[in-house]
Structures are given as structure tokens and as C-alpha cells.
Amino acid sequence: MGENVDFRRWDELIPDALGLIFKNLPLQEILTVVPGVCKLWRKAVTGPYCWQDIDIEQWSQQCRPETLDRMLQMLITRSSGSLRKLCVAGLANDQSFSLIADNAKSLQTLRLPRSEISDSIVEQVAGRLFSVTFLDVSYCRNIGAPALEAIGKNCKLLMGLRRTMHPLEVIDKLSQDDEAFAIATTMPKLKQLEVAYLLISTEAVLKILENCPELELLDVRGCWNVKLDENCIKKFTRLKVVGPHVVDYFGMKGCDDCSNYSGSSGYLAWDFVAGNVGSDYDDEISDGDWEDDQSMEDVEMRFYDGFDLDNAAFDWPLSP
Question: Which InterPro entries match (predicted)?
């Protein structure tokens, strides 16, 4: 007990260790509070250590497109090619998606709900998304079968796909079986597939089941033309099917994580289970609400205009 124990000071922790700690803080604090403490902490939050997992999905739903573009540019640049997870909603243009693809060599989880990306840009850059294992393109109205086919042909490791739509977004379509067939013919390793409210047929779903033998979760809530029974799917021993009937439409949410899926949720029409879905495809990390665009202006000013940390006064405005 008399031995000397060498405890390291906080300010001597190596940057990647600090990054592991800081990335558990809310986004606003990482960008506006931590860098004002000391030079070492600023180095940690301006390097790639805090930006391997970027989740600004909640924040991005409440900001202007130009503000989102600047934030995305800044954070992706900081990741320095080490980006493993990116969650962002409402990309306003193809350029932002191209930026993501240019920095996707380590990217595994990509969530882009409600984004205005096009088939053409997805076809152009899908080859750079080769390491992606989970993809969310829900409510992306401007893409269809061509984009999904390009993704399937290039993302050979893809295990989870979320392609949920709002009923009003497909009201003018006759069928989306072409999307289902694109999934069936190019994504054989899928384990999780969510296609709620797509206008697909029983034939299309059976084609998916036939060509995706590893499928463990299939969400077809709101796919009213799909008629399945126990005889149709009993040979798929590990499969859970959700839908097509919806018990609580307005409370409906996507299954963010297979391991968190519960058969008691009230959404199950069938639950023919001969095995549990236990792999994590998509973890949720909440950064909290950050609605003040002025905070983004403060971040940019302090990081790009030579903020003097030695004489810093921690007095810039923060949103609630």
C-alpha cells in the first residue's frame, strides 16, 4: 500500500483518450465550451478524435440549409477520413452527399432521412460507399430504383437498409415494385429491411425473401398490397415480420436498432420467430436540441478567426 502510484493529470491525457471522453458531450458543448478550456482540449476537439461518430440528425432538422452545409463541411473535415458513422437529416443538395462520399472510406453507418438527393448523384458516388453496412434513405423523395440498385451493387457489406416513406409521399405512384426488385437482386446480405409504406406487392416481398436468406427483420407496415401468412414465411426460420397493419399510425417510428426491437410494441401482425435478432446495426446517440443559429456563427468565428485560448474569456452566448 506504500507504493507510489503515478496518476496522470487530465491535461496530459493523449488526444484520442480525450476524444473518447468529449464525444459523449452534447454537440454544442464540444464545439463551443471544450475548446475554450485549454490548448490541449482544443486540439482534441479540432482533430479527428471526437468526429469518428457524427450524429447531428436532431439538430439538422431545425436549421437552415446553408447552416447545415457549413456544419457538415466543418465536422467532416475534422474527421480526417476516420468517419465511421454519420447521421444527418435534410441534405438540401447533391453536393453535400458528394462531400460525404468523398470522405467515406471508413464509413459504416449512414443515415440521411428527408434528404433531397437524386438518383444521378447516388449512381455517381455509390462506389465510394463500399464500407457502409447500414443505410437510411427514408423520406428521400427524389431517389428510386436506380439509386437503390447502385447502392446494392457497390455496398457489398450492406446489412441494414431503411427505406420508409410517408403515405402522402407515394400517393401519386402506382407501384414501387421496381425498388423492391432492386433490393432483392443486389442486396443479398441484408439482415434488416424497413420498407414501410412503400407501394409494393406480395410478389416483390417474396422476391426479397427468396434472395436475402439472412434477413432477420422485415418491416412492411403500411404496405397494404402485401398479403403474407405463416405458410409463406415459415421456411425463413430467423425472420420477424412487422406489418402490414399499423396499430398506431401517428406514433409509428422506425426500428432504430434490431437489438432493441420488442414484439410487444403493438405493431406486430405476425411474429413467427425461430431466433433472436441480436446484432446492432444502428445505435442512437442524441446530441439534444440546439436551435440557435447564432451559436453556429460563434463556432465558426472562434475556430477560423484565430481564437486566443491563452487569454480566452468564456463569455460567448449559448442557446438554451
Answer: F-box-like_dom_sf, F-box_dom, LRR_dom_sf
The whole model's pTM is what?
0.72
Closest CA to 31 of 253, 318, 320, 279: 318
Is residue 17 one of the residues assigned to a domain?
A: yes
Length of the chain: 320
Please state whether the peptide bond connecting residue 244 to the residue before it is cis, i.e. omega within 30 degrees of 0.
Answer: yes
Q: 90: Cβ–Cβ under 8 A, 6 or more apart, which residues?
A: 60, 61, 65, 68, 113, 114, 115, 116
pLDDT tens figures, 206-224: 999 999 999 999 999 998 8
Structural domain for 135, as ranges: 50-242
In this structure, are 40 and 142 located in the same domain? no
Q: Are 303 and 35 in contact (CB under 8 A)?
A: yes
Q: Would residue 235 count as lying in a domain? A: yes
263 belongs to a structural domain: no
pLDDT tens digits along 237-262: 788 888 787 765 444 444 443 333 33
